[in-house]
Amino acid sequence: MPISVGVAGAAGRMGATVCKAVEGADDLLLAGRADPALGVALADILGDVDVVVDFTQPDQATANALACVEAGVHVVIGTSSFDLEPLRGATGANVFFAPNFAIGAVLMMRFAAEASRIMAKAEIIELHHDGKLDAPSGTAARTAEMMEGDVPIHSVRLPGLVAHQEVILGDVGQTLTIRHDSIDRQSFMPGVLLAIRKVGSLTESPVVGLEHLLFER
Ligand SMILES: NC(=O)c1ccc[n+]([C@@H]2O[C@H](COP(=O)([O-])OP(=O)(O)OC[C@H]3O[C@@H](n4cnc5c(N)ncnc54)[C@H](O)[C@@H]3O)[C@@H](O)[C@H]2O)c1
Q: Which ligand 1 atom is nearest residue 98's CA?
């Protein structure tokens, strides 16, 4: 039986890419597209789906995820900088959130955390397209959280960019730069599909970070 998937934010840049990726996967069925731009509310599709993927906006994702859990529908959240607190302790279905679904970004965060334990200081520069609503990005905030010491974040918003991040570490007479570039939204799709397949079998909820699905805990 394929997993029935609904996409919240289906008319957006990420949501439309997720819809195509789900349609292209043999074990998944795209059963609903919710977006005010399509005239379809999330509540209209909840009865038809096992999992919802939310790529909406920071002030919408918490309420969407609560509605999913209350309806017994698992939810995979990609939206940045939303409030996760109300979802802690919510029971009925599982919640998975990744600040970044690109495998290279997950590795970048891991390497930066490791390097910060050895090098003296670090700063982060995150660069995104100018349609991005939040700053700093969720990825940069999460990277800084994983690193040792106080790590300042600088945000750049320009047309032409997709999602990029540089972690620069400095020590006596040397610097180390760890950089990741998502040059196409396809970079996020393997991670999103993995999360859709695994969210139903999580043994705790919410789980934050693709690393928990990729590596041994
Ligand atoms: N986690 C990741 O790997 C990752 C990667 C890229 C983008 N993002 C984040 O994903 C989010 C979406 O990015 P985007 O570039 O696709 O934005 P976008 O503005 O192109 O799309 C957002 C869509 O959500 C719709 N929407 C708004 N409120 C809604 C609601 N209540 N229910 C359903 N749909 C609703 C909007 O109409 C719009 O079509 C942003 O927060 C962005 O930062 C995360």
A: 1
128 is catalytic: yes
Select from 61, 203, 50, 53 the least CA-distant residue to 138.
61
pLDDT tens string, the chain, 217 residues long: the values are 999 999 999 999 999 999 999 999 999 999 999 999 999 999 999 999 999 999 999 999 999 999 999 999 999 999 999 999 999 999 999 999 999 999 999 999 999 999 999 999 999 999 999 999 999 999 999 999 999 999 999 999 999 999 999 999 999 999 999 999 999 999 999 999 999 999 999 999 999 999 999 986 5
pTM > 0.90: yes
DSSP string, 148-172: SS---EEEEE-TT--EEEEEEEEET
Question: Hey, what are 18's tokens?
Answer: 């997720």
CB 175 within 8 A of CB 123: no
Residue nearest to atom 15 of ligand 1 (CA): 13
From the alpha carbon of 80, which atom of ligand 1 is closest?
A: 41
If DSSP codes are grouped into helix, strand and coil, which group holds residue 192?
helix
Q: Give me ligand 1 centre to Cα 176, in Å.
A: 33
